[in-house]
Each structure stands twice: as structure tokens, then as C-alpha cells.
Amino acid sequence: MTQRWWGSARHRVAIGGRVLDEKTKRPVSDAVVALTEVPNEFHVRYEAGMDAARQSSPEHVKRLDQTRTSAAGYYYFLDLPRGKYGLKATGSGRTPPVATGKAKVSVDEDGNVVMTMIDLTLRYPSSK
User: Fold this and answer.
1) For the chain, which residues make up each domain, given as ranges?
2) pLDDT tens digits, 28-58
3) Concatenated DSSP letters for the chain?
4) Does domain 13-38+66-122 bear CATH number 3.90.1150.10?
5) pTM value surpassing 0.85
């Protein structure tokens, strides 16, 4: 009998939060949250991850630099390298509301990612 060792992948939330609507103060579901500024190490990991994903399952390649909010308005990014990040959340509609923010990912003395929480409030463009 062959014994198999099954490892479990452990992912850590590096940046997470909630997207809220400026007018209603309610959570926004299905908003796009994108990383707009990333450290150089992110580019190295991103390209390596995309290459591996394309080789194993090209039809299911998931972008690592953006995500969508849950029904309760929550979003998160996993396993990001340390550094400074820019965030942009975009709602839906003809003139969608937008929110931007900044976050910093750091690690503790044991090398564990310290989660950064940042809520983003979608603001509607001013009508002229």
C-alpha cells in the first residue's frame, strides 16, 4: 500500500474589507475591487502564478489583481507580498460610483502576513 501525504494550502488574507454605498451606507455586492498600485515583488509572483494557472487550467485563469465583493460587501486579497498597495472599488451603472484607498501589507517577526482591513465607500460622480 502506498501512503500519500496530502498537504493543505494555507492562505492568509493580506488586505480585506468592505465596500459601502455613500448614499445608503449599505454594503455593495458584486463591486469590482482592483489593486492599482503594487510593489515589484507582486509582479514577479503574479506572472509566475498566471503562467502556472494557464498551464494547468487555461479556461479557469483567475486574475490575482482584482476581485468582486460578496453579497455582504466584503472583499479580500490573499497571500500578497509586503509593500504598499493602491485600491480602487467600482460599482455598477452608467456612471458608476468609485472609491480609492491605500493599504500596506507587512509581516510579523515570525514571517506571518499581518492582515490590513480597509473599508471603501463608493462615491457618485457630481452632476454638472
Assistant:
1) 13-38+66-122
2) 999 999 999 999 988 787 776 666 666 666 5
3) ------------EEEEEEEEETTT--B-TT-EEEEEE--HHHHHHHHHHHHHHHHH-GGG---SSEEE--TTSEEEEESPPSEEEEEEEE--SSS--EEEEEEEEEE-TTSPEEPEE--EEEBPPPP-
4) no
5) no
